[in-house]
Amino acid sequence: MSLIEKWMTPVVAERLPVPADYMANELVGNLFTVWAGGFGIAVIPWAIYCYMKKGNDIPLWMILGGLICSLIEPMLDHLGHLWYPTNLPGPAFIGYDLNIPALIPPCYVFFISMTGYWAYTRMKQGLTVKGVFITWFLIAMTDVIMEMPGTATQAYIYYGDASFKIFGFPLAWGWLNGTSMLMVGFLLYLVEPYLKGRNRIALALVSVVAMGASYGITAWPYFMSLNHDMPWIATRLLTLLSLALCLLVVRFVAALVADKSVSAENPAAALRTQPA
After folding, report:
1. Within-domain flag for 5
2. Bridge-based pairing state of the strands 82-83 and 10-11
3. Residue 116: is it exposed, middle or buried by C-beta count within 10 angstroms (0-12/13-18/19+)?
4. Residue 9 CB: number of other CB atoms within 10 A?
5. Domain count across the chain
6. Which end of the chain is more exposed for a tag (fewer CB within 10 A), N or C?
7. Does residue 1 belong to any structural domain of this protein?
8. Is 44 exposed, middle or buried (0-12, 13-18, 19+ CB in 10 A)?
9. Quick check: 153 and 199 in contact, CB under 8 A?
């Protein structure tokens, strides 16, 4: 088969149910549950400390927001072709005919909400454009580090012909999830100063709004590559398009954050940069 023929080989999209006999090794399943979900539980005492000792209620609202945000997991699993073993602890809930393991809600608490909160604290401290991109890269790598042990040990599976897999992990999820976590921090950075009193409850919606918006902007080419019949090369190009969209979103965030950082540090200089 020539290279051109390989590129043009049709890839048939299939959305398949979780096989009834798909079960993880018991030790692997339990260890991955602790690895992926344990951080979300461990962060709760810290969030209570922040509120009781420092009057900082944001971490508690973000914990609630992570639990709410986890409700979109079955939609992403359905579009992203992910199977969880039938013997993982749970389910926490069921959606799209998928059993969502008990590890997912606390996983969203830590890896979506609290990672987004970390990005927010970095933005508040002031970031350059380069600093925003470094923050995004570090966040994306947390997703890779968290997920790859699970796919390598088949604690869960991304099935089908997903592009750019390493140890069963499609790298697209690294940049897609990394961008969504950055967007959580960015939205929190934008709205938190304006939410006072009873309006603080809106902080609980930051994670699901930002993550949903991020996926709407960046993930549609990748989901097309998995769910549309097309030539093999088209699936790879669409996956790379999702990366390009992520970089565009990060650049947009970086422009706004860096501009506000300059304005906060030197108002006079910021005024000089504004058009007449």
Report:
1. no
2. unpaired
3. buried
4. 12
5. 1
6. C
7. no
8. middle
9. no
Is residue 192 a part of any domain in this protein? Answer: yes
pLDDT in tens, 137-191: 999 999 998 899 889 988 899 998 899 999 999 999 999 999 999 999 999 999 9
Query: Which whole number is the average pLDDT over 126-137?
Result: 96
Residue 165 lies inside a defined structural domain of this protein: yes
pLDDT digits (tens, 9 = 90+) for 194-253: 999 999 999 999 999 999 999 999 999 999 999 999 999 999 999 999 999 999 999 999
Residue with tokens 């990394």: 178
In this predicted model, what pLDDT tens digit does every residue of 9-57 receive, in sequence order? 777 778 888 998 899 888 888 888 888 888 899 999 999 999 999 999 9
